[in-house]
Amino acid sequence: MSTVRDLGSEAVARELCPTVFASLRRSDQRRKAEQYVLGLLTVPGRKSIRKIAARTRGDADDHPSTAAVEQSLQHFVSCSTWPWSDVRAALARHMESALRPTAWVVRPLVIPKAGSHSVGVARRALPGLGSPVNCQEAHGLWLANEVASTPVNWRLRIPVEWLDSPTRRREGGIPDDEPRLTPDGAAANTALEVAAGWGLTRRPIVLDLSPDGAAGAAPEGASTAAVTVLSAAGLPFVVRIGADTDVGTPADIALSGYRRRTVAAHHVMSAVHRLRRAVEWTDPASGLVRTSLVAKVPVNLTGGAVRRTGVGERPLVLVGEWDKAGGRPSRFWLTDLVDAPSGVLLRLTKLTRRVDRDLVDITDEVGVRDFEGRTYPGWHRHTTLTSVAHAVRLLATAHALHPAAAARVPLRLPATAALRTG
């Protein structure tokens, strides 16, 4: 390793890997896991197994061939039997202590592909991306606060054409019990897995299925289905919804010009725009202080599926945010945190910007989209190892900025800290 940054990452990796890989029963598996993580952190450009193998071969005392190391790592990632969920849970527990997150943020991840053989690949028409894209579609859950975030769980959404093909299921190593999930179902289940038995303190789940987390349109209807799933599980949430999503308004909320009790979200916000308040917030992506206009109003959900689950009876709050004083709100959110002040709710929603920045600056740089294999287990093990590499880079950056407080928790990074790995 030739740079101070790499030396710092190597030192943190040597410290972290024994903890997160303790569930791997064999010492050779633990050694290969650490080698793979160090490769993700140090090889330039695309993180192919061949490049990682060449880097690993250079560190070996017995000078094996690159081909032999490549074959060994390929087997470790794609064909071995180690359970990635145990590693993810151990990583999450460690990073919860380091970050003390204020929320769990769920965001979509699109992985473009040139061919048709990678597991789960399909041509998809995704919101905000224009024409259909040949890609894999995944969702990640991030532990996040205003200054740092780290991914700890991933779910790859397998399309129906793969699930209905015995040949594709067999060749892709897709489990027999893999469910048919819509995008909102996949996003919600990414959070349910973490909440089920990982031993973390439950935090509000901030879920945004829009492609960029900005003022672009959120998928209509999809996120309300996620609300139903999260509500049924008893998990607190702040979920972005579309402007035309119907919500029910209580009888004591007078909506001038509307006779119906069920009204589109943007109509509700238009009717209560005089309730808007200016809220200052620090942009997690830039560190700049910004101001938005925010209003919130009590609502409930409507529709047959909602009534069947009983979610429609739960008190909810609709939050609208205006970037400018005129027009309709730029973003709409639905939450069950009915007693939280508007400022608290707005700042929770802005954690998506923290995650989107860290995805570009760290997770992409350590190769989360670079897996070249074709199997479901291989994809999950690769993304697990990239999550560990992300955590290493994050911790190494914090230690470099504050060497005297390297062991202190929670992790402290200035909001404007340069976390880019290039």
UniProtKB/TrEMBL annotation:
Q: Which domain of life is it from?
A: Bacteria
Q: Which is one Pfam family of this protein? A: DDE_5
Which lineage do the record's taxonomy fields give for this organism?
Answer: Bacteria, Bacillati, Actinomycetota, Actinomycetes, Kitasatosporales
Q: What PANTHER family does its record include?
A: TRANSPOSASE
InterPro entries to which the protein is assigned, alphabetical? IS701-like, IS701-like_DDE_dom
Every copy of the Transposase IS701-like DDE domain together lies at: 20-260
- Would you tell me the protein name for this molecule? Transposase
